[in-house]
């Protein structure tokens, strides 16, 4: 009884910021986050991309949550939405590949280069091309003239060595290929992406283990559709504080890759349903625990296509960027077994020291790693515009990223409740 009494006394002597962030148990926080991640990564959201209006369904859900937690639109707007458009290449129909009559599984056995054009051919012949024989750029240019769209599929061996020779990333390699269908064998895990352009070629990355001697024919059916003006929304709400025109910003992107054809869904649970769920939790928390400053909540779209939503906001800000005191961006919040990394930690050492001190005093996370500037999430354009910004991501988990396996049930949320406590206390302590 005496020990319990002493514990209560010590707890009450802690700064109120630390106590108030513990309004719920660790289990309750995880359960709440898990349920929101499950909604955002559900198959009904179609990967929150550009096929079957997945991103628009996610936008509606987030706006509903903003209303629930009494966030207000920015004063001169009646809506949470900041709408803009950009081009994006999509695969809304067939994405089929078969080898000698055996149908391969999209996302598991192969992926389409995100810039690929439509292509259809049945029982195509199969020609291997050894790219290791290329010794210079001129030799490569000559080889390009030999590729013909003549009822065959080219199987390109040793692409990595050629890319190294030419100083190209594999993604850009596909952009120089002429019209036709090309297969590139791959040992590494598949990582898909989004492309704003269409290439001349149709490029397919296939598990190298599926190709054996004696292949007779290949059938391909790819239906691509370049949407020149795909509508997208940044979703913005505010909780006003005592200082109404000075803001702390909490951000996360809610878009993901969507669907590759009508079968393969990229759920994006870790990237970034988890960060979006965290943003919604912060909205819920601060709606009942008002901050001294106003808090701006922004759920960005277009991140996977190149940080487009956050760039658009910084070029068309709904509040003066100079009025944003600090921005905290959360992207990939699924498993902090090995702690977190803070991008821009070296740019803002005072704020990073505050974060570390809170973590140490409360024994929250096993490690907080420091990282410098990087253009790898939505904090970047704000940081470049002079807004003090952190991008926080977790270290740990199964490594599912930009693939069909990044599902809600694969996320552990280890130590993520501690991140909630850490970020809330950090925001409360910012001066």
Q: Can you walk me through this structure?
A:
With 431 residues, this protein is of the alpha/beta class. It has 2 domains: 15-87 and 228-429, Aminopeptidase, CATH 3.40.630; 94-222, Glucose Oxidase, domain 1 (3-Layer(bba) Sandwich). The protein is built from 12 helices and 18 strands. It has helices at residues 2-13, 16-20, 26-40, 54-68, 137-144, 159-166, 170-173, 269-288, 308-315, 349-362, 379-384, 416-429; strands at 81-90, 95-99, 102-103, 110-112, 119-130, 152-157, 180-186, 201-207, 218-222, 225-239, 243-253, 258-260, 264-266, 293-300, 324-330, 340-343, 368-371, 389-394. The radius of gyration is 24 Å and the shape is elongated. The protein starts with a helix and ends with a helix. Mean pLDDT is 93; it is low at 1-20.
Overview features:
eight-stranded mixed sheet; 431 residues; signal; aminopeptidase; elongated; aminopeptidase activity; single chain; alpha/beta; M28_fam; protease; Aminopeptidase
CATH architecture of the largest domain: 3-Layer(aba) Sandwich
Strand order of the largest sheet: 1-10-14-11-15-18-16-17
Inertia-based shape: elongated
At the fourth CATH level, what is the homologous superfamily of the largest domain?
Zn peptidases
* Number of domain units: 2
Could you name the ranges where pLDDT drops below 50 across 5 or more consecutive residues? 1-20
Mean pLDDT: 93
Helix content: 25-40%
Q: Could you name the CATH topology of the largest domain? A: Aminopeptidase
Order of helices and strands: HHHHEEEEEHEHHEEEEEEEHEHEEHEHEH
**DSSP summary: helix tally:** 12
Signal peptide: 1-23
GO molecular function: aminopeptidase activity; metalloexopeptidase activity
Domain Peptidase M28: 234-426
InterPro entries: M28_fam, Peptidase_M28
């Amino acid at each position: 009884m005496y020990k319990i009494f002493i514990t209560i006394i010590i707890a009450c002597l802690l700064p109120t910021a630390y106590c108030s962030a513990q309004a719920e148990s660790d289990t309750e926080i995880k359960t709440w986050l898990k349920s929101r991640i499950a909604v955002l990564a559900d198959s009904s959201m179609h990967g929150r991309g550009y096929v079957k209006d997945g991103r628009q369904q996610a936008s509606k859900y987030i706006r509903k949550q903003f209303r629930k937690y009494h966030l207000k639109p920015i004063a001169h707007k009646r809506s949470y939405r900041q709408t803009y458009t950009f081009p994006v290449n999509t695969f809304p129909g067939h994405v089929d590949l078969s080898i000698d009559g055996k149908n391969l599984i999209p996302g598991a056995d192969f992926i389409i280069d995100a810039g690929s054009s439509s292509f259809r051919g049945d029982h195509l012949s199969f020609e291997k091309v050894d790219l290791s024989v290329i010794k210079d750029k001129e030799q490569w240019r000559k080889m390009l003239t030999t590729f013909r769209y003549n009822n065959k599929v080219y199987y390109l061996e040793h692409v990595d060595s050629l890319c190294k020779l030419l100083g190209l990333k594999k993604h850009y390699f596909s952009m120089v290929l002429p019209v036709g269908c090309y297969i590139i064998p791959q040992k590494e895990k598949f990582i898909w992406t989004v492309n704003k352009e269409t290439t001349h070629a149709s490029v397919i990355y296939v598990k190298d283990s599926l190709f054996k001697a004696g292949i007779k024919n290949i059938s391909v059916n790819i239906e691509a559709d370049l949407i020149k003006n795909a509508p997208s929304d940044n979703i913005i709400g505010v909780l006003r504080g005592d200082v109404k025109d000075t803001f702390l910003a909490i951000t996360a992107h809610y878009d993901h890759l969507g669907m590759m054809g009508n079968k393969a869904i990229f759920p994006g649970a870790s990237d970034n349903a988890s960060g979006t769920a965290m943003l919604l939790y912060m909205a819920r928390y601060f709606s009942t625990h008002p901050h001294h400053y106003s808090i701006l909540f922004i759920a960005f779209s277009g991140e996977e296509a190149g940080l487009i939503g956050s760039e658009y906001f910084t070029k068309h800000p709904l509040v003066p960027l100079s009025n944003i005191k600090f921005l905290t961006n959360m992207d990939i919040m699924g498993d902090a077994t090995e702690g977190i990394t803070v991008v821009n930690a070296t740019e803002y050492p005072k704020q990073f020291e505050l974060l570390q001190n809170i973590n140490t005093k409360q024994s929250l996370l096993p490690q907080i790693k420091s990282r410098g500037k990087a253009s790898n999430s939505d904090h970047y354009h704000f940081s470049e515009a002079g807004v003090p910004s952190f991008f926080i991501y977790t270290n740990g988990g199964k490594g599912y990223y930009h693939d069909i396996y990044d599902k809600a049930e694969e996320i552990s949320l280890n130590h993520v409740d501690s991140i909630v406590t850490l970020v809330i206390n950090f925001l409360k302590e910012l001066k």
